[in-house]
Design goal:
Shape: elongated
Structural class: mainly alpha
Largest sheet: 4 strands, mixed
Strand order of the largest sheet: 2-1-3-4
Radius of gyration: 29 Å
Helix content: 55-70%
Number of helices: 14
Distance between the termini: 22 Å
Strand content: 5-15%
Order of helices and strands: HHEHEHEHEHHHHHHHHH
Number of strands: 4
Length: about 375
C-alpha cells in the first residue's frame, strides 16, 4: 500500500467533501444544531407549573398558604377561580396542570382542631409533570404546616419541637440537579454516532454508483481518513461548547476524553464503512446508517432513559451497543472526573466492539469488482 497513493486519495476525498454542500451541512451544522436542541429544548427540570387556585375560605390564613405557592419557582399561579366549575374547565382546557382548593372554614378548623385539609387536583395526562407537581405541592404545604406549628408553640410559650431524625442531602457531581448537565455529554456520543456513520456510509456506496471502484480498491484507508479528522473536530467542538457555552463541568482528563472518543470513532466509522459496502446505494446507506445509529444511541444507550429501569431483555440488548459504554465514559469524565482505572470495563467493551467491527468491515470489502 503506497503512502503517496493514500495521501492522494485523502486529498481527493477532502476536496469532494468541501465541494459537496450536503456534506458540509452535515459536518458543520448538524452537530451544533443537535447540541443546542438538546441543551435548551430537551429539559426534564419541571418548573413554573401552571397553577389554579380556588380559595373558599378567603382569610389571611388561607392567603398566606397560597402565597407560599406564589413565592416558589416551581409554580406559576395563572388563574384565580371563583367556583369548582371554573377549576374543572381550566384543567380541561390545559390552562393549568395543578389546582389547589382551600375549603371553607379552613382557618377556623385549623384553630379549633389543629388540623385542616387542602385539596389538590392534578391533570395526570402528563404523569411525569403531575407526579412532580404533587410532590412540590406536598412539600410546600408541609413546610407551611411546620411554620404554623412553630408559631403556635411560640405563641403559647412552648419550646420548639426537636426533630428526632433530620435529613441532610448532599448532591455530588451535579450539584444543581440540572438535566442539561446530564444530557449534554450524551449529545457528543449522538453527534459522533450519527455524523460519523452517516458520512462514512456514503463513501463506498458513492463509488458503487459512479463505477469508480477501481480507484478505491487499492487505497480504502485514504477514503476514510478525512472522516476520522472530521469526527475528532466535531468531538472537540461539542466538548468545548458543552464546557464553555453551556457551563457543563469538566472534571476529568481531556486526554482520556479524546482517547475514548477516538476509540468510539473507530467503531462508528467501521459501522458506516460496513453499511456502505453492503448497501451499494447512497439512499439505502443513509437510511440504514440513521436507523443503526440514531435510534439505538437515543433510546438504548442511557442517554435519555436509565438502562437499569429498562426490562431485563432490553438491558441484555444494550450490552452490545457501543454508545452505551461511550455515554457512560462521557458522563464519568465530564461530571465525576473518574480516573481511567475505573473506566476499564467500558473501555475494554468499546475496544472489543471496535475490533469486531473493523474485522467485519474489512472482510465485507472484497478486493475485486463484482
Amino acid at each position: 500500500m503506497s503512502l503517496r497513493r493514500i495521501i492522494a486519495m485523502t486529498r481527493k476525498e477532502t476536496l469532494q467533501i468541501v465541494r459537496d454542500p450536503l456534506s458540509l451541512l452535515i459536518i458543520l451544522a448538524i452537530p451544533l444544531i443537535q447540541l443546542f436542541i438538546f441543551g435548551y429544548a430537551v429539559n426534564l427540570d419541571v418548573k413554573h407549573i401552571p397553577l389554579c387556585v380556588y380559595d373558599r375560605d378567603a382569610t389571611q390564613t388561607s392567603q398566606s398558604l397560597l402565597k407560599h405557592f406564589q413565592a416558589t419557582e416551581y409554580f406559576n399561579i395563572v388563574r384565580v377561580s371563583e367556583n369548582y366549575r371554573d377549576v374543572v374547565r381550566s384543567i380541561d382546557r390545559g390552562t393549568c396542570t395543578v389546582a389547589v382548593v382551600v375549603p371553607p372554614r379552613f382557618s377556623e378548623t385549623l384553630r379549633s382542631t389543629g388540623q385542616a385539609h387542602v385539596q389538590a387536583l392534578l391533570d395526570a395526562s402528563d404523569n411525569n409533570t403531575a407526579s412532580i407537581g404533587m410532590a412540590y405541592a406536598q412539600s410546600i404545604v408541609q413546610s407551611h404546616s411546620a411554620q404554623i406549628q412553630l408559631e403556635w408553640r411560640q405563641g403559647h410559650g412552648l419550646p420548639a419541637p426537636v426533630p428526632v431524625i433530620t435529613f441532610q442531602p448532599r448532591t455530588w457531581f451535579n450539584e444543581d440537579l440540572e438535566s442539561m448537565a446530564n444530557f449534554i455529554p450524551g449529545v457528543v456520543a449522538l453527534v459522533m454516532a450519527v455524523v460519523g456513520a452517516f458520512l462514512t456510509s456514503l463513501t463506498i456506496a458513492r463509488e458503487w454508483e459512479r463505477g469508480t471502484m477501481e480507484q478505491l480498491i487499492s487505497t480504502p484507508i485514504g477514503k476514510l481518513f478525512p472522516y476520522f479528522v472530521i469526527g475528532i473536530a466535531d468531538t472537540a467542538v461539542c466538548g468545548g461548547t458543552a464546557f464553555w457555552w453551556f457551563g457543563v463541568p469538566f472534571r476529568g482528563s481531556w486526554l482520556v476524553f479524546f482517547a475514548c472518543s477516538i476509540l468510539f470513532l473507530i467503531v462508528v466509522l467501521s459501522l458506516g464503512y460496513f453499511i456502505s459496502v453492503t448497501a451499494k446505494s447512497q439512499l439505502g446507506a443513509c437510511q440504514v446508517a440513521l436507523l443503526a445509529t440514531f435510534l439505538p444511541t437515543f433510546l438504548l444507550s442511557g442517554f435519555i432513559f436509565p438502562i437499569d429501569q429498562m426490562p431485563t431483555v432490553v438491558q441484555w440488548i444494550t450490552a452490545i451497543l457501543p454508545a452505551r459504554y461511550y455515554v457512560s465514559i462521557l458522563r464519568n469524565v465530564f461530571l465525576k472526573g473518574t480516573a481511567v482505572q475505573l473506566l476499564v470495563t467500558q473501555i475494554v467493551a468499546l475496544a472489543v466492539i471496535a475490533a469486531a467491527l473493523v474485522v467485519l468491515a474489512t472482510r465485507s470489502f472484497q478486493k475485486k469488482l463484482p
